[in-house]
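Worked problem 6 (solution included).
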Amino acid sequence: MTTFIAWVGADSRGTASINFSTDSRISWGSNGNPHWDMAQKTFASVFSADIFAYVNDVMFPSMVLGQIINAIDNGVLFDSDERLETRFYKVEEYIKNSHKLFPQQHRRSFCIFHAARIGTGLKSEFALNTISWSQATSSWKISRLIIPATSTIIAIDGTGKNAVSKWSARWNASSQGGTSRAIFSSFCNAIYSGEDKFTNGSPQIVSLYRKGFGRHIGFVDGGKRYLSGAELPISTIVNSSKIEWRNRYFERCDISGELIQEAKKHHVPKGLI
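Solution. The predicted structure is:
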C-alpha cells in the first residue's frame, strides 16, 4: 500500500527543491477494504532541512518517523547545520535500533525516503537517502539517489507505481512536460483514476527549498482543504497563511482554492484534466 513520488524542482540556476508526495490510504484487506483515507505518510522537520516519507508497511514506519521528527525538532538527534552524512547515519541507526525491538511477527517490508539539504541559497546541496528492510531476506539496504539539476522524477514507488508511471508519461509528452506542475498533476491523475485499489485519499506533499527547513504543503481540491492527508474543516483553520497551499495542478492558491495574487495560471493539456 501507499503510492509515492519524489521529484526535483529546478530553475535556470539548478536544483531548487526536492518534493515528496503520497496518497493517504491505508488498507487492512487484500481487496483494499476496509480502508482509511486520512493516514499521514509524509513528514517534515521545522528545525532542520529534512523531509521523510514511506511505502509498503504502515505500522512501523509511521510510528518511528513520528518519533524521529520529534527528536529532530527538539534538537536532540542532531543540529540543524549537521553534515548530511551525519544526519543520514543518525536516522539510519535510530530506525535500525527501533526495528530490533519491533515484534518479529508484525515485521513487514518497508522503504523510508529521507531528503535533506545543507547550506542555503545557491550554495545549498540536496541529497536523498533510502532505508529499506526486506521481510523476505530480513536484511537492510541503504541507497543514495542521484539528484539531477533539472525538473524530473527521482523515484516512484508503492502499489500504484504503474499508474503513476503511465500518467507521468502522458503529462511528460505534453507541452507541460519537464516541470514540477506536470509531475504533481500526473500524480494526482494516478490517485484519482482508481487504478490501484490500495491508493486513494488526498495527495499530501512535503518539500525542501533552497532556504528554510522542511515544509508541509497544504492541498486544496473540490472546496476542501487537506494537510498531511487529513481534511481540515474551514472552521478549524486559525491562520492559513502559515503554510503554502497548492491545487492539483501545483498552482499556488489560498484555502478557498483561488490562485494567490503572484501565482501563475498553468495550462492544462487537453485530455489530462
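Discussion: The chain has one domain: 3-246.
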